[in-house]
Amino acid sequence: MGAQAVMQRLATLDEEISTWRDLEAQTASLAELLELSMEEGAGDVADDIARETAELTEKIGELEFQLVFSGPHDDRSAIFAIHAGAGGSDSQDWAQMLLRMYLRWAERKKCKTTILETSPGEETGIKSATVEVTGPFAYGWLKVERGVHRLVRLSPFDADHLRHTSFALVEVLPEADGNLEVQINSEDLRIDTYRASGHGGQNVQKLETAVRITHLPTGIVVTCQNERSQGQNRDVAMKVLQARLIDREEQIRAEEQAKIKGAHVSAGWGNQIRSYVLHPYKMVKDHRSGYQTSDSQAVLDGEIDELLRAELMNLVGQEDVS
Fold first, then answer.
1. Where is pLDDT greater, at 312 or 16?
2. How far is CA 191 from the centre of its chain?
3. Does 264 have pLDDT greater than 50?
4. Are 79 and 242 in contact (CB under 8 A)?
5. Residue ranges of domains in the chain
6. Is the pLDDT assigned to residue 268 strictly greater than 50?
7. Smallest Cα–Cα separation from 164: which of 96, 98, 86, 99?
8. What pLDDT is recorded for position 193?
9. Which helix H or strand E contains 93, and what residues bound it?
């Protein structure tokens, strides 16, 4: 493990130990207060005891929930990608709506987000986007979002204003921690450069700063064009490539274990995880946990914690959820 990763891990453990020690001290103080009130008959502290008991119960509940983050990569940063499905402007607009939802969620969680790559749609929205999310258990939270997200609404791009169904695929990868967990040989890479597209002024088009890296053994392709220099774009693309290779290794391992168990492993577009219905009624429903809410606007504004919690709790007791 690299020095930076070791220091980050030590800082995380130190914070966890401090939290549990504070909880231990608060519990001891509450027990003493309760014992005193029983001995002295001090009924006037009943409200204080009730308030502190409620606070303590809430803290314990939150710590119990954090036990769901037991996967090998859950405490890492996350790299997620959104890909618009077939359907032109509707799907590309839907992909951008999802990007906005996740960025707002990350802001609520006080996570740092860095847009690594975007591919704008022909008329509106995005064809794809790749984003790095840095914060406590970012991957642990977001890993349950991988899969197909379905939107049903009256299309703003249809002259007859008919109801349309759009799809977008979300991928979530754990960021590599600098350990070279997967070996990448230079002879296995094909690196192409090209002129960046999209916004950024006329100078963007003059230099071949964008980078496309193809990992020949697996066929994995990553691109980056958002940074100013070719070197920066290459560094970011390599980071994403390593994350994709780690995820590929995890998927292979999970498929092998599933074969032993006789389980079916769904993949790609067949894995529709959630529906967002805006017409003829409003509802967001997760098809795995069964959690649903009628406040679809709040969800699209980034209030997805309850959806994430429901699926994370749904995974408790299952193996290989990371």
1. 312
2. 28
3. no
4. no
5. 3-68, 78-179+270-315, 186-261
6. no
7. 86
8. 92
9. helix 89-108
CATH of domain 78-179+270-315: 3.30.70.1660
* 85, amino acid identity: G
Neighbours of 177 (CB within 10 A): 20
CA–CA gap between residue 108 and residue 95 (Å, rounded): 20
Contact 69, 319 (CB under 8 A): no
95 contact partners, CB below 8 Å, separation of at least 6: 82, 83, 84, 121, 125, 126, 127, 128, 129, 168
The two three-digit tokens of residue 297, written as one number: 């606007």
Q: For the domain bounded by 186-261, which CATH number is listed?
A: 3.30.160.20
If 0-12 CB within 10 Å is exposed, 13-18 middle and 19+ buried, where does residue 81 land?
A: buried
Q: What is the DSSP string of 154-201?
A: E-TT-TT--EEEEEEEEEEEEPP-SS--S---GGGEEEEEE---SSS-
Could you write out the DSSP letters of every residue in 246-259? HHHHHHHHHHHHHH
Q: Which two tokens stand for residue 201?
A: 């002024």
Residue 150 backbone phi and psi in degrees, to 5: -115, 130
